[in-house]
């Protein structure tokens, strides 16, 4: 059971690991959901795998930004990179404790420990995304005077939101490296279950001698996850969500689960717009990138069917050509 040479799996948890449809997002609900995810993760440990976990942070970082704006007259607001670091600690703490408790329940705590790492990812200063911010963040604004003041005083880009009102928009640059990759390798090689690259990672840029500075941006959590999986030499990358996998005609009577795709096949479907741009599309793109870069398989599937995904009974498997 305690194989030291077990394969390394990087798991990217979706939002349903913390919040289910119809829930308000209370602390009690989050703990309940996190424990379900923790049991799935420990199930892999019992099968001899090494595991690194990453996760999204959209609702949580949104909450932090709402709180900051609500209290801005009393407490100076923080920047988005710091808000991202806060959520890595918040979510990492919950996952770490839940995983550790399940390890204790399973009698595995003498062999394995869970640990959370505050994790930065490098983005390029000249990424074209900086000139075209598209990701809506933070609260809604309706007062024209307030909007102009925010633009002037904080240098924000604010645009109409399709759902009403106005919101700040920030860039979503691509990720090129993971700053703490060597620390992550050292930890998992010594039987730690590592929680890293939360929210895709904290975006930073490097100067000519390697010094880092945070940037206000949104990192795609799935692309951040595939970078993590690639740089720590994962054998398998699994993106977990609230559907069984990638579908053709999703949500229609003739929907069809795509059980296995080669990279070239997946690319064609992605280019044809088969997958939702804001939902399944980024997941397929991340899976393609991992399989293409490493020559190893990537999977997309439901959080509650993790074992079935690995056995080929569920999910979508993307393979190199």
UniProtKB/TrEMBL annotation:
GO cellular component, one term: cytosol
Domain of life: Archaea
Gene3D superfamilies (UniProt xref): Acetylglutamate kinase-like
Residue ranges occupied by any Aspartate/glutamate/uridylate kinase domain in the UniProt entry: 8-301
Keywords of the record: Kinase, Transferase
InterPro entries reported in the protein's UniProt record: AceGlu_kinase-like_sf, Asp/Glu/Uridylate_kinase, Carb_kinase
Molecular function in Gene Ontology: carbamate kinase activity
Pfam families attached to this UniProt entry: AA_kinase
Gene Ontology terms describing biological process: L-arginine deiminase pathway
PANTHER family for the chain: CARBAMATE KINASE (PTHR30409), CARBAMATE KINASE-RELATED (PTHR30409:SF1)
Family statement drawn from the similarity comment of this UniProt entry: Belongs to the carbamate kinase family.
Name assigned to this protein: Carbamate kinase
Natural source organism: Fervidicoccus fontis
């Amino acid at each position: 059971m305690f194989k030291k040479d077990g394969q390394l799996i990087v798991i990217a948890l979706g939002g349903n690991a913390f919040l289910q449809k119809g829930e308000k997002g209370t602390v009690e609900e989050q703990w309940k959901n996190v424990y379900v995810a923790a049991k799935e993760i420990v199930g892999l440990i019992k099968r001899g795998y090494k595991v690194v976990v990453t996760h999204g942070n959209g609702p949580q970082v949104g909450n932090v930004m709402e709180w900051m704006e609500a209290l801005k007259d009393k407490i100076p607001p923080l920047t988005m990179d710091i808000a991202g670091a806060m959520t890595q600690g918040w979510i990492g703490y919950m996952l770490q404790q839940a995983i550790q408790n399940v390890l204790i329940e399973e009698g595995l705590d003498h062999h394995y420990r869970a640990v959370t790492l505050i994790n930065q990812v490098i983005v390029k200063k000249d990424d074209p995304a900086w000139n075209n911010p598209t990701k809506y963040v933070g609260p809604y604004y309706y007062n024209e005077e307030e909007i102009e003041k925010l633009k002037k005083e904080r240098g924000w880009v604010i645009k109409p939101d399709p759902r009403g009102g106005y919101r700040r928009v920030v860039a979503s640059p691509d990720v090129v490296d993971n700053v703490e990759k060597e620390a992550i390798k050292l930890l998992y090689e010594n039987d730690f279950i590592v929680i890293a690259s939360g929210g895709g990672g904290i975006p930073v840029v490097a100067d000519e001698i390697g010094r880092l500075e945070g940037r206000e941006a949104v990192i795609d959590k799935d692309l951040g996850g595939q970078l993590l999986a690639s740089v720590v030499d994962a054998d398998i990358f699994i993106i977990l969500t609230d559907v069984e996998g990638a579908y053709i005609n999703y949500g229609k009577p003739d929907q069809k689960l795509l059980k296995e795709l080669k990279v070239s096949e997946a690319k064609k479907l992605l280019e044809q717009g088969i997958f939702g741009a804001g939902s399944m599309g980024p997941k397929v793109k991340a899976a393609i990138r991992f399989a293409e870069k490493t020559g190893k398989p990537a999977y997309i599937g439901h959080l509650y069917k993790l074992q079935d995904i690995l056995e080929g009974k569920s999910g979508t498997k993307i393979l190199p050509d």
